[in-house]
Specification:
The complex is a heterotrimer of chains A (477), B (173) and C (318).
Chain A lengths: L6 H19 L7 H19 L5 E3 L4 E3 L1 H27 L4 H20 L3 H19 L6 H32 L4 H14 L2 H18 L8 H8 L2 H26 L7 H20 L5 H22 L2 H30 L12 H4 L1 H15 L5 H15 L3 H26 L14 H19 L2 H12 L3
Helix pairs in contact in A: 1-2, 1-4, 2-3, 2-4, 3-4, 3-10, 3-13, 3-18, 3-19, 4-5, 4-10, 5-6, 5-10, 6-7, 6-8, 6-9, 7-10, 8-10, 9-10, 9-12, 10-12, 10-13, 11-12, 11-17, 12-13, 12-16, 12-17, 13-15, 13-16, 13-18, 13-19, 15-17, 15-18, 16-17, 16-18
Chain B lengths: L2 H22 L3 H21 L3 H25 L12 H4 L3 H24 L13 H10 L3 H22 L6
Chain C lengths: L1 H35 L16 H10 L11 H17 L18 H9 L2 H11 L3 H32 L4 H11 L7 H14 L11 H4 L9 H26 L10 H20 L7 H29 L1
Helix pairs in contact in C: 1-10, 2-10, 3-5, 3-10, 5-6, 6-7, 6-8, 6-12, 8-10, 8-12, 10-11
The chains are: A mainly alpha (477), B mainly alpha (173), C mainly alpha (318).
Chain lengths: 477, 173, 318
């Protein structure tokens, strides 16, 4: 048994445990340094991930696969966790909560997400998903003095637990039919099962897996927990949920649905496409009515999941590549938007959209950055979001599902309205009385620089990441 | 009808009845005890399948450890009487979200599952009854499934930390 | 039919032993405690050394009025003694009394033992809750916390033995002790943890907080009297014997011993451990609840984990 193939996960989990110990040793005033420890751990984990083989080798008794996709998701989740760490140091300390436990849970959750993404067996996949989810439930309810945060934690927990059990039920049905837990073995066994007439139960299993994962990624109609969870969670965790937790759900869909159960039903792409259109439309239309910026971003992220599902529905290599590219773009723009929100709420500002009145005068830099992120979420050229949508639309057209491309275009048009509302409030509404200037800490500054550069870089020079994403999507089966 | 079948039917009926009463008992204490009965019944069924290690662990972990947690949760929480008014089930059915909608959806799920189970010619298990069932559980658990096993221990640690974070009294620090 | 007959005979045998054991132990406890306190204990009722005292007690208990406290949860209240006795009787199923003398040589004997004894908590909870009495409930809560806290080191301390013997079958564990010698020598840490934890599991002094008379009257069985109370007492003494017998099986060589037949050695060694338990009970004062929890979680638990680690390392380098 050679655990050397999971060094990135081992390092990250060990850093999580070390943080708990350091919490006792490091005096209260110096706990800021714990953020540095976590960041170093994540960077170390990323370096370890870069050195792992990526030739599609199986390891640990076939539990995990080391292919480019594993590398992509490992780096994606680590980048997300890194940004969350950077902008949660001030936020959590400002709320008077314990930083070490928060960062430790972020490390554990990210470990879970990484285990999930590299799994080549449904058992380790499910365990990874549960590690991610259980840590995330706690993180959502972390501000336990705030009723909203309690509500967020509880709703996320109840929905997530239901989703996990549905997913597990589905997996057990698939196991019952195939007798296998390995993903390629399931794919193979399902082909024979189809000829022998076991496919009714297998189809139900597939349906339940999809429903369970649909809950996890907040696809419509399983999205109802998302706005409450995003609104009440600590802002960094709202970013974490939308990037890492949903990214992990997408990874699970790629591994489980596209690879393991792909051969079962030729037409599931159409069903996934319908789910995609439904998700983006409901997300965008509901976002129009939101008054709270975190709720708005929650519905916006539901819509983004819809776009991502479109790429999965196409299912071609180009489609998966577009999904991966979009996830990378989404990481930077969503994290960036949440970072701006977190800096503002650390400075004592509320989360209602009306609180953003006159931000362009009070803090021009933050206002410009938030505008860039909104533009990217909307899909304005020269931003990451534009390239992401372009590649999704391209994949949909080439994959013979042009109706999906139309859906994405129409939905982008709808989403102009609510992103514009924020921009207009920031730039055109008058400055309220007794508005305070906003200061930023070094960590927040770093997070803002990284997200802005990432958003613009992916928009202007997307080739590198495009190449990576396409490389990762080639060998998934 | 063999004696094994008779025992199986009796055990299943007891287990099902206990499971039914978990959902319908008016006192949460009774529900908890019926839950213990359900666990024990499932363990007995495992015994009948000659999965004796699984049965013993089911008893130890569910009827023992999980029930201890449930019992403590009950004893530590403030109890309030639910009131003497217990609606008759005919009346309860009128309420949409607590009555007929859940009933319809669960019956529908049951019927769908039943139909598809009956429709499927299940592949028969190749392995004969294990002589040493402990070995059959242990070898995969610690060899091919070692990674999920270790991840599960991180998961338990995360859950432990999470429980403390969410419930610790501030003045304890 | 023969199987059925044998089964019935076995059940009757176990039940008779459980009753006889409680009879002897109650008398023995009185005599030992008397001598420890420089008294002579019961002598008057009859027979040598007052051996008929327990018989008189049984008559008294049987003739008591059977009543149910008002406001009691009838089903729970009535079932609680039964649920307490059942696991105490069931564990005899796997005890290896002699070389070939075991009721059922289950291949997961040790796990069966622990899992069946974990049901005791339910009986305690039912009694505490069903009595509708605050002392009962508090006693049940303490007993539950104690059972739960000490079950973990108890089980962990037995795993060291399992690792050495390479089996969960109690009969095989005893057989393995011909190669290794008694496991108390390589597993002395495990034995100490096991013994302390089993005294705590049995709710006996110095860990008898669940029925601390000065605070809680009689803990979870405050409201019980007559034969219902007697069932709790029988279960308690039966558990005292079976846990001691488990200790003998795991650490003291089970039925191994010179000259005498195996089952005699087994019973003698078990009663020796029981005697040590009684001796401790009448020697040490009661601990406080926080000391109890500290001992369990901060000492026994880490020590038993370290013991496991050491055993594992030994098996690796061997």
């Amino acid at each position: 048994m050679n655990f050397g193939t999971v060094w990135p996960e081992i390092i990250l989990a060990a850093v999580g445990m070390a943080l708990i110990l350091l919490d006792v040793i490091v005096p209260k005033q110096r706990q800021r340094a714990l953020g540095l420890v976590a960041v170093l751990g994540m960077v170390g984990s990323g370096v370890a991930a870069a050195f792992e083989p990526r030739n599609g080798a199986l390891a640990l008794g076939g539990m995990i696969i080391l292919d480019p996709l594993s590398l992509f998701f490992r780096l994606l989740f680590l980048a997300g966790a890194l940004l969350v760490t950077l902008f949660s140091v001030d936020y959590i300390r400002g709320k008077g909560r314990d930083l070490a436990e928060f960062l430790a849970l972020v490390c554990f959750a990210t470990t879970g997400a990484m285990i999930l993404a590299i799994s080549w067996n449904v058992v380790s996949l499910f365990v990874g998903l549960e590690l991610l989810s259980i840590s995330a439930y706690v993180l959502a309810g972390f501000l336990r003095d705030e009723p909203k945060s309690n509500e967020a934690g509880l709703k996320y927990f109840l929905n997530g637990a239901l989703a996990s059990s549905v997913l597990l039920f589905g997996l057990s049905l698939v196991y019952g039919v195939t007798g296998q837990t390995g993903i390629p073995e399931i794919a193979k066994a399902l082909v024979t099962a189809q000829t022998q007439g076991y496919s009714t139960v297998a189809l139900m299993g597939l349906g339940m897996v999809l429903v369970g994962l649909g809950f996890k990624i907040a696809a419509v109609p399983f999205h109802l927990w998302a706005p409450d969870a995003y609104e009440g969670s600590p802002t960094p965790i709202a970013g974490f949920l939308s990037v890492v937790a949903e990214g992990a759900g997408i990874a699970a869909i790629i591994r489980l649905v596209s690879v393991a159960m792909g051969p079962l039903e030729g037409s599931w792409g159409v069903w996934l496409g319908a789910l995609s259109i439904l998700t983006m439309t409901v997300g965008n239309v509901t976002a129009l009515w939101q008054k709270n910026i975190k709720r708005m971003l929650a519905y916006s992220s539901v819509a983004q999941v819809g776009y991502i599902l479109a790429g999965l529905a196409v299912g071609t290599t180009a489609g998966i590549g577009a999904v991966l590219f979009y996830l990378a773009a989404y990481l930077f723009m969503t994290m960036g938007a949440f970072t701006v929100i977190a800096s503002l709420s650390s400075a004592g500002q509320g989360n209602e959209i009306s609180d953003y009145a006159g931000l362009g005068v009070r803090s021009p830099i933050l206002a410009v950055l938030l505008t860039i992120f909104m533009a990217s979420l909307l899909g304005i050229p020269a931003t990451a979001g534009f390239m992401g949508k372009l590649s999704l639309i391209g994949a949909a057209v080439h994959g013979g599902m042009a109706w999906l491309a139309v859906g994405i275009a129409v939905n982008s048009a709808i989403s102009v309205a609510y992103y514009w509302l924020v921009a207009r409030t920031m730039w055109l509404d008058p400055v309220p009385e007794k508005a305070e200037p906003i200061r930023r800490s070094a960590e927040l500054g770093a997070a803002l620089v990284v997200t802005t550069v990432g958003t613009l870089f992916l928009g202007i020079l997307p080739q590198v990441v495009f190449f990576f994403a396409n490389w990762a999507s080639v060998g998934i089966r | 009808m063999t004696s094994t079948l008779v025992i199986f039917i009796v055990l299943s009926l007891l287990t099902l009845y206990a499971a039914y009463r978990v959902a319908t008992a008016h006192l949460i204490t009774h529900a908890a005890l019926f839950l213990a009965g359900t666990f024990a019944g499932v363990a007995a069924l495992f015994f009948m399948l000659q999965a004796d290690f699984l049965a013993a662990v089911q008893l130890l972990l569910y009827a023992g450890a999980v029930m201890a947690v449930v019992v403590f949760a009950i004893m530590l929480s403030q109890m309030r009487e639910a009131g003497d008014h217990v609606p008759r089930w005919v009346d309860a059915l009128r309420s949409p979200f607590f009555g007929f909608l859940p009933l319809i959806s669960s019956v529908a799920l049951f019927v769908i599952l039943l139909i598809s189970y009956l429709d499927t010619p299940w592949p028969s298990s190749a392995t004969a009854a294990a002589v040493n069932s402990t070995r059959y559980v242990a070898v995969p658990l610690f060899q091919s499934y070692a990674l999920p096993f270790e991840v599960a221990s991180v998961l338990l640690l995360a859950a432990l930390i999470g429980a403390i974070v969410l419930t610790r009294r501030e003045d304890d620090r | 039919m023969n199987i059925l007959l044998a089964a019935i005979l076995k059940v009757i045998g176990v039940l008779m032993f459980v009753g006889l054991n409680a009879y002897i132990l109650i008398w023995g406890e009185r005599k030992v405690s008397g001598h420890i306190q420089r008294r002579i204990g019961p002598i008057r009722v009859g027979g040598p050394s007052g051996i008929m005292q327990s018989a008189a007690d049984i008559l008294k208990l049987m003739s008591k009025e059977d009543f149910v406290p008002s406001g009691a949860d009838w089903w729970l209240w009535v079932l609680a003694p039964v649920v307490s006795v059942a696991p105490a009787v069931l564990v005899y199923l796997v005890l290896p009394i002699g070389r070939t003398l075991v009721l059922r040589n289950l291949n997961v004997g040790l796990v069966f033992f622990s899992s069946v004894s974990s049901f005791t908590l339910l009986g305690i909870f039912m009694a505490g809750w069903g009595s509708n009495n605050k002392y009962s409930l508090l006693g049940a809560m303490r007993a539950g916390a104690q059972l739960f806290s000490y079950e973990i080191p108890l089980i962990l301390s037995t795993i060291g033995v399992v690792m050495l013997a390479g089996s969960l079958t109690l009969q095989r564990i005893v057989a393995a002790q011909t190669h290794y010698g008694w496991f108390i020598f390589p597993q002395i840490v495990g034995f100490i943890v096991f013994f302390v934890a089993s005294v705590a599991e049995l709710n006996r002094t110095p860990f008898d907080l669940a029925e601390a008379e000065s605070e809680l009257v009689a803990g979870y069985f405050t409201e019980y009297s007559g034969m219902r109370w007697a069932m709790f007492a029988i279960a308690e003494y039966s558990n005292l014997f079976t846990l001691s017998a488990l200790g003998v099986t795991l650490f003291l060589g089970g039925w191994h011993g010179p000259l005498l037949p195996g089952w005699v050695w087994f019973v003698l060694k078990s009663y020796f451990l029981v005697f040590v338990g009684i001796w401790i009970r009448w020697t040490l004062p009661r601990v406080r609840i926080d000391q109890l929890m500290d001992l369990g979680w901060k000492f026994l638990f880490p020590v038993s984990v370290l013991n496991l680690l050491g055993t594992g390392l030994y098996l690796m380098v061997r």
